[in-house]
Amino acid sequence: MQLFVVGPPRSGITIVTQFLNHHEDIKIFDEIDLIQVGRYGDSVIGTLQAFLLERDVYEAYQRRARETSDPAVALGAVMSKLAWPRTIWGEKNPRYATQLDALRRIFPKAVVVFVLRDPREVVNSCLAHRDSPLRAPTDFWIKDTVAEALTLVDSCLQPLRAGGADLVVVRYEAFAAQPKATLDAALGRWGLTFSDGALPLAHPAPETVGEHQFFRDGAPLPWKAGNLSPLHQARPTRGRVDADDPAWSQVDALAREFGYD
C-alpha cells in the first residue's frame, strides 16, 4: 500500500507525517520526488536519483525497470525493500497538491491524505519568514506579499473544489486537538489505528535525501521549530503580517469557502 500526504505548504503536513510514522506499519519519506519515475525511461534524475544513490539501490532500480518495462513497478519494489519491515510506504510532498493527476497515473491505488488548514493561518505562515537569513530559493512557499501567498494556497486547494472524492481530507485543527481519533476516522477503513502514546514524543524528521530537513548548514530552521516538539506544546499566537493589506479580504473569503468562520 502506498500512502501520500499532500496539501498547501505550511498546513501541518510534516507533523501529520511524523505522527503517521509512529505507526509500526507506516514509512513515509519526505519530498523525494517519487512522481518523477517514468519520465526518463529506466533512469531518474534530481532528488529521486540522489535518494536512490544514497541508499545504493539506484542500479537495482534500473535493472528492475528494464526487466519489467514498468519504472513505477520497479520503483515500488525498491521502495518496499527500503521501507521493510513496514509494509506501507509513501511520501509527504506539498507540491503534489497541484500534481494529483500525475500522481494518480503513477500510483493509481495509492491513498492520498490531503491536510486542510485554515487558509488564513497558512497565508500568514508563508509570510512570517520572508526576512529570515536562512531563506533559500528552494523555500518556494515563502512569499513576500499577501497576494503571492494567497495565489499559492488557492492553487493548492483546487483539488478540493473539484470534488476530491478520492482524497482523504484531514483538517489540521481536528488533528491537533485529537490526533488519534482524527487519524482513526480518516484511515480506519484500511485497518489502521493509531495510539495516543505518540503525543508526548518529540517526533523524528521523516527520512529524506541529503541534510536533515529541519536544519540548514547546521542551523535549526525557525519554521521547523514546532516539528521538533511534542504535538500538544502550546504555540505562540502570531498577528497578521501586513495586516492592512487589502488582499486579506480575499484570504478571509477563501477561509469561509472551506468552512472556516
Automatic annotation (TrEMBL):
InterPro entries: P-loop_NTPase (IPR027417), TPST-like (IPR026634). Keywords: Transferase. Pfam families: Sulfotransfer_3 (PF13469). The keyword Transferase applies. This is Sulfotransferase. One of its GO terms (molecular function) is protein-tyrosine sulfotransferase activity.
